[in-house]
Amino acid sequence: MELTQDEKYMKEALKQAAKARKIGEVPIGCVIVYEDRIIGRGYNRRNTDKSTLAHAEISAIKKAAKVIGDWRLEECTLYVTLEPCPMCGGAIVQSRMKRCVIGTMSPKSGCAGSILNLLQEPRFNHQVEITEGVLRDECQEMLQEFFKELRIRLKEEKRLAENASTTGF
Ligand SMILES: [Zn+2]
Question: Within a 10 A sphere around the Cβ of 50, how many other Cβ atoms?
Answer without folding.
Answer: 8
